[in-house]
Amino acid sequence: MKKDWEINPNLYLTDSKGSFILKKDGTPAKKRGRPKGSKSNYHFHSKTKAKFAARKSLKNKQKTIKKLESQLSNKKQHLKKQTETLKKVAGLEDNAIVTTDEVKKLPSAVQSHLDKTGDNVSFMPNEGPQTKFLAADEKDVLYGGAAGGGKSYAMLIDPLRYCHIKEHRALILRRTMPELRELIDKSREIYPLAFKGARFKEVEKVWYFPSGAKVEFGFLEKDADVYRYQGQAYSWIGFDEITHLPTEFGWNYLASRLRTTNPDIKTYLRCTANPGGVGAHWVKKRYIEPNEPNSSFRGEDGLTRKFIPARLMDNPYLAEDGEYERMLMSLPPIQRRQLLEGNWEVNEGAAFVEFNNEHHVIPPFEIPIHWERVKGVDYGYAAESCCLWGAVDPEDKTIIIYRELYRKGLTGEALADLITEMERGEVKSIMGVLDTAAWARTGYTGPTIGETLIKAGHKLRRADKNRIAGKVQIHEHLKRRMLKTGSLGRPRLQFFNTCVNTIKEIQGIPLSKKNPEDVDTNAPDHAYDALRYLIMSRPRLDDPFDTMLRIKERAYTPSDSEFGY
Asked: Which of 116, 326, 476, 494 has its CA 20 to 30 A from that of 409?
């Protein structure tokens, strides 16, 4: 039998002489690999070949089935999510939130419908002040001036700048809850279009956005309302019609609530206002007086600020037909200048519109020894105690308020000691009047506040607390007198500029909504009450050293014979 190397010698290794290269067993060594051009030398049996092909085909089919099953499962899940998302978009689920990722999973035709420009653009700012307000980078910005300038819409849009971030919390305020209704109604028009899936909870007065951000609506009618927001943190706080706040206390307190844990969020204070209102004096001092309009500046508290004036002409939707302008033109002169012109130099809404810094606030000077002096005291412990000292100019009977004490947490003895200390240097004891409530006994067996003050050596009697008559007297004293020349002279009441708390209260105290003849007692009124008591004490209006004046003027009758005034 022939050997394989004899039949296929080309498959075996040979040396240079053509002889086979032998292995250790003496047989020729075979070449490695398959011979070139040879495919037919190695054949599987046909049954084996068919078996391997069937296995391979089966595996491929099983893989295809698994792939199709997986695709079917994914399609079912996708369809389920699409159905749920469409229900949310259609508003069939209460308080449902639609995220951006969910919208992306909707059919392309649905996405295209939702993303149409006409449906997506809910607000376009007017060129000019409205755009400047929304683009302002300062911490604290006032957008104010004429009515109809688009301030309320700007106030609603500005907090949306970070509503795509979960940690964003915004607070929009008005003075009363009913005043919020207009803003809430406007937000219902804008917010769902700006952020698909945004939902408003009426009871909470809060908008919930897909990202988790919130925009809350609140009110701040009186200073005590600030404690509704104690412990809260907001990255954006805005007050629509900030001049409705009598004092800056509430606004300053809310500024302390301004903080965030997300470094990508910048905190802002934003407010709008028309000129006038009970808080116009402090708003003007905070935003308008320090610098030119549209110019950034840094306040005494270190915050960057800007005042952006608004004009009716900046709103083309109201200015074009002129109807709104004609309505404003029909208003009384003061309101017309405020609401049409955006003039901050006129003030209406405060109880004492006659007050003017130029005429009623003067620099301190040395009070002559012979001028008659009197003091008015309003006591409080939780609230401020206030004592005002007044001197009467014998030339024209003007009362000069030259000193004030304004402090919380004082007992009767502490108040007595402070008054004694502040009266050191006076040439004689100053008589005065004290709030009647300080004489009242409420189960306390010790001396009253009034008795404590008298025991300390202060000559005091019960004040005349006729609120309406007292307010009228302040009005009379604030009026400028007509001189014989026909020009206006100085008023019968002036204040040293060191009496800052008294000036602030008289400037800003509002009228009572229930009784327009009186002031709003919810506003700070301690210096006002002390001033009212002082004026109603009927201090001497003549010079005791000038006998000629006693003859020319009608006889002076003191209201209290014991004290002589």
From this structure: 494
